C-alpha cells in the first residue's frame, strides 16, 4: 500500500489538495460563462419571437404602411442574424460545458495521480490545457456573436433613422448624425 503511505504524508496530502483547487477556480469560471451565455441565448429567443410577431403583422396588412417592403426586408435580415447568433451561442455553450467536464476530470485526475501514480502528472496538465482551450474557443465565439449583435442593432437603428427621415420631415433631415455614425464620422 505504497499509495496510501504517500497520501498519509501531510505535505503530499496538502500538495494534492492545493493542486485540486486550480481546476475548481476554472470550474467556477465556466459556470459563470455558462450562466451568462444561456442568458444571451434567452435574449436571442425572445428577440426572434418579437421579430416573428412583427413579420406576422406586416404579412396580415402590407397596405397599411408604404414602407412595408422595407420593414419586411429588415425583419428577414434580423431573423437571419438572430439565427446565426443562436448557433454561435449554442457552440459556445457546448465548448463551455466541455471545458467544465474536462476541468472536473482534471481535478479527479490530480487526486488519483497524487494517490496512485506520480509519474503520470502530465495527464492532469494536458487535461487542464485542453479545458483552457475549450474556454478560449467559447470566448472567441462569444466575441463574434457580440459583433453580430452590434451589427443587428446598427442595421435596425439605420432603419429607424430612415423611417424617421421619411415621416418626421425637415427637422430630422437637418439633424446631425444619421445612420451608422461613430464619433460623428460615417461608417462604411
Describe the structure.
The chain is mainly alpha-helical. The protein has one domain. The chain is 84% helix and 2% strand. The chain contains five helices and two strands. It has helices at 2-8, 10-60, 68-115, 121-168, 170-173, and strands at residues 181-182, 185-186. It has a two-stranded antiparallel ribbon with strand order 1-2. α2 packs antiparallel against α3, α2 runs parallel beside α4 and α3 (68-115) packs antiparallel against α4 (121-168). The chain is rod-shaped. The model has no long low-confidence stretch (mean pLDDT 79).
Question: What attributes does this structure have?
Answer:
mainly alpha; single chain
Number of domains: 1
Radius of gyration (Å): 26 Å
In the sheet with the most strands, the strands line up as 1-2
User: Number of DSSP helices?
Assistant: 5
Annotation, overall tally of beta strands: 2
Category by helix and strand content: mainly alpha
Shape type? rod-shaped
Name the helix and strand elements from N-terminus to C-terminus, one letter apiece. Answer: HHHHHEE
Query: What percent of residues are in strands?
Result: under 5%
Main sheet?
A: 2 strands, antiparallel
Helical amount:
over 70%
Mean pLDDT: 79
Question: How many angstroms does the end-to-end distance come to?
Answer: 71 Å
Which spans have pLDDT < 50 for at least 5 consecutive residues?
none
Amino acid at each position: 500500500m505504497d499509495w496510501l503511505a504517500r497520501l498519509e504524508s501531510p505535505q503530499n496530502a496538502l500538495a494534492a489538495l492545493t493542486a485540486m483547487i486550480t481546476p475548481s477556480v476554472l470550474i467556477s469560471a465556466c459556470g459563470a460563462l455558462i450562466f451568462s451565455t444561456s442568458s444571451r441565448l434567452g435574449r436571442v429567443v425572445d428577440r426572434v419571437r418579437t421579430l416573428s410577431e412583427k413579420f406576422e403583422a406586416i404579412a396580415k396588412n402590407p397596405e397599411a404602411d408604404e414602407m412595408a417592403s422595407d420593414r419586411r426586408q429588415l425583419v428577414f435580415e434580423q431573423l437571419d442574424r438572430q439565427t446565426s447568433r443562436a448557433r454561435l451561442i449554442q457552440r459556445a455553450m457546448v465548448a463551455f460545458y466541455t471545458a467544465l467536464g474536462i476541468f472536473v476530470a482534471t481535478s479527479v485526475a490530480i487526486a488519483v495521480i497524487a494517490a496512485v501514480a506520480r509519474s503520470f502528472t502530465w495527464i492532469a496538465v494536458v487535461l487542464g490545457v485542453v479545458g483552457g482551450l475549450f474556454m478560449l474557443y467559447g470566448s472567441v465565439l462569444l466575441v463574434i456573436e457580440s459583433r453580430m449583435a452590434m451589427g443587428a442593432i446598427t442595421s435596425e437603428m439605420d432603419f429607424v433613422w430612415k423611417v424617421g427621415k421619411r415621416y418626421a420631415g425637415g427637422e430630422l433631415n437637418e439633424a446631425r448624425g444619421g445612420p451608422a455614425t461613430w464619433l460623428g464620422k460615417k461608417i462604411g
